[in-house]
UniProtKB/TrEMBL annotation:
It is found in: Cell outer membrane; Cell surface. Pfam families: Lipoprotein_1 (PF00820). The keyword Electron transport does not apply. This is Outer surface protein A. One of its GO terms (cellular component) is cell outer membrane. It is a lipid-anchor. Its main location: membrane. Belongs to the OspA lipoprotein family. Keywords: Cell outer membrane, Lipoprotein, Membrane, Palmitate, Signal.
Protein backbone atom coordinates (compact mmCIF):
# COMPACT_ATOMS: atom_id res chain seq x y z
CA UNK A 1 0.00 0.00 0.00
CA UNK A 2 1.78 3.12 -1.25
CA UNK A 3 1.30 6.42 0.49
CA UNK A 4 0.02 9.35 -1.51
CA UNK A 5 2.93 11.78 -1.53
CA UNK A 6 0.70 14.76 -2.31
CA UNK A 7 -1.10 14.56 1.03
CA UNK A 8 0.43 16.34 3.99
CA UNK A 9 0.50 15.13 7.58
CA UNK A 10 2.42 15.92 10.75
CA UNK A 11 5.37 13.78 9.60
CA UNK A 12 6.14 15.56 6.35
CA UNK A 13 4.83 19.06 7.00
CA UNK A 14 4.93 22.03 9.35
CA UNK A 15 1.76 23.68 10.66
CA UNK A 16 1.58 27.49 10.43
CA UNK A 17 -1.06 29.45 12.34
CA UNK A 18 -2.55 32.39 10.43
CA UNK A 19 -4.92 35.22 11.39
CA UNK A 20 -8.56 34.13 11.45
CA UNK A 21 -7.81 30.79 13.10
CA UNK A 22 -6.60 29.29 9.82
CA UNK A 23 -3.87 26.67 9.90
CA UNK A 24 -1.77 25.95 6.83
CA UNK A 25 0.32 22.80 6.50
CA UNK A 26 3.55 23.38 4.57
CA UNK A 27 5.58 20.49 3.19
CA UNK A 28 9.11 20.15 4.55
CA UNK A 29 10.40 19.14 1.13
CA UNK A 30 9.98 20.84 -2.24
CA UNK A 31 7.98 19.00 -4.90
CA UNK A 32 9.29 18.03 -8.34
CA UNK A 33 8.63 21.58 -9.59
CA UNK A 34 10.75 23.08 -6.81
CA UNK A 35 7.76 24.41 -4.85
CA UNK A 36 6.45 23.72 -1.36
CA UNK A 37 3.03 22.09 -1.10
CA UNK A 38 0.40 23.90 0.97
CA UNK A 39 -2.81 22.55 2.48
CA UNK A 40 -5.44 24.19 4.67
CA UNK A 41 -8.95 23.32 5.80
CA UNK A 42 -11.47 26.16 5.79
CA UNK A 43 -15.11 25.45 6.70
CA UNK A 44 -14.43 21.70 6.34
CA UNK A 45 -13.18 22.26 2.77
CA UNK A 46 -9.66 21.17 1.91
CA UNK A 47 -7.68 23.80 0.03
CA UNK A 48 -4.40 23.00 -1.72
CA UNK A 49 -1.71 25.06 -3.36
CA UNK A 50 2.01 25.57 -3.82
CA UNK A 51 4.48 28.26 -2.85
CA UNK A 52 8.10 29.25 -3.44
CA UNK A 53 8.41 29.89 0.30
CA UNK A 54 8.13 27.42 3.16
CA UNK A 55 6.48 29.85 5.61
CA UNK A 56 2.83 29.22 4.68
CA UNK A 57 2.38 32.10 2.25
CA UNK A 58 0.86 31.49 -1.18
CA UNK A 59 -2.45 30.73 -2.86
CA UNK A 60 -4.58 27.71 -1.95
CA UNK A 61 -7.70 26.66 -3.83
CA UNK A 62 -10.53 24.17 -3.48
CA UNK A 63 -13.98 23.46 -4.91
CA UNK A 64 -17.12 23.23 -2.78
CA UNK A 65 -19.93 20.74 -3.34
CA UNK A 66 -21.97 23.39 -5.17
CA UNK A 67 -19.09 23.83 -7.68
CA UNK A 68 -18.13 27.24 -6.32
CA UNK A 69 -14.38 27.78 -5.98
CA UNK A 70 -12.71 28.87 -2.77
CA UNK A 71 -9.40 30.73 -2.95
CA UNK A 72 -7.24 31.55 0.06
CA UNK A 73 -4.41 34.02 -0.51
CA UNK A 74 -1.78 34.38 2.22
CA UNK A 75 0.58 37.36 2.05
CA UNK A 76 4.36 36.80 2.12
CA UNK A 77 4.64 38.14 5.67
CA UNK A 78 1.61 36.04 6.78
CA UNK A 79 -0.03 39.22 8.08
CA UNK A 80 -2.94 39.19 5.66
CA UNK A 81 -5.20 36.40 4.46
CA UNK A 82 -7.87 36.86 1.81
CA UNK A 83 -10.61 34.27 1.41
CA UNK A 84 -12.65 34.50 -1.79
CA UNK A 85 -15.57 32.35 -2.87
CA UNK A 86 -16.21 32.32 -6.61
CA UNK A 87 -19.44 31.11 -8.15
CA UNK A 88 -19.37 28.58 -10.96
CA UNK A 89 -19.50 31.42 -13.51
CA UNK A 90 -16.33 32.92 -12.02
CA UNK A 91 -17.92 35.96 -10.40
CA UNK A 92 -16.92 36.69 -6.82
CA UNK A 93 -19.65 35.73 -4.38
CA UNK A 94 -18.06 36.46 -1.02
CA UNK A 95 -14.79 38.22 -0.43
Amino acid sequence: CKQNVSSLDEKNSVSVDLPGEIKVLVSKEKNKDGKYSLMATVDKLELKGTSDKNNGSGVLEGVKADKSKVKLTVSDDLGQTTLEVLKEDGKTLVS
